[in-house]
Amino acid sequence: MTIEYATAHRRASHIPAEAGTPYFIEKGDGDRAHLFGDLITIYAGGEQTENAFNFFTVEGPKGNLIPAHVHADTYEVFYVTAGAVRLFVEDLHGNQQEKLLTPGDFGFVPKNCPHAYRMERHHSQVVGVAAGPGGTFERFFETLGAPTDQHGLPRDAFVPAPEKFATVPQQYDVRFLRDHQWKTG
């Protein structure tokens, strides 16, 4: 059994609203949101780590490329625990590369490097960690997506209205690159 807390983001959460409180979360019981065809589960965020880092999972079906984006102040880690995920990244000199990551593989994206990813197999899962001087962006998933109490993938993909993408950079360190082209594949 885990404790439930009321937070600024949810009326019931397994994540305490402030730093300095030890806690445990059973598998899948973090704060969840659906975005595109994926389920994002947040286990720790800025409130708990004094904006030092966040920790979340993204799981989804084989699907489309997640839109290219960049974080000006945030470093991001991709660690694949199930399935396969293709990570696309561009360095600060404009050199692009892609890599198919399978369970146990790790990808690192420095701040200011455009990146995107695509789930290549059904039931793929990525453990994500993001950290940087600008704070954390985990609440972006709930803001752009649809918060849910449901475990598992969404029945139908949740695609935000185009105008909603414009509001995200103002609150979170995520800037979408609408016309970005990947030359790698």
Assembly context of the chains: single chain
Name the CATH architecture. Sandwich
- Please state the average pLDDT score: 90
Strand residue percentage: 25-35%
Please report the number of helical segments: 4
> How many beta-strand runs?
12
Low-confidence stretches: none
Task: Just give the CATH class.
Answer: Mainly Beta
Radius of gyration: 16 Å
Which H/E pattern describes the elements?
EEHEEEEEEEEHEHHE
Largest sheet: 7 strands, antiparallel
How many domains make up the 3D coordinates? 1
CATH topology: Jelly Rolls
Q: Which range best describes the helical content: under 10%, 10-25%, 25-40%, 40-55%, 55-70% or over 70%? A: under 10%
Question: Separation of termini?
Answer: 46 Å
Structural class by sheet pairing and helices: mainly beta
Q: Kindly report the spatial arrangement of strands forming the biggest sheet.
A: 8-5-10-3-2-1-11
Task: Give the name of the CATH superfamily.
Answer: Jelly Rolls
- Principal-axes shape call: globular
Keywords: Dioxygenase, Oxidoreductase
Pfam families: Cupin_2 (PF07883)
Protein name: Quercetin 2,3-dioxygenase
EC number: 1.13.11.24
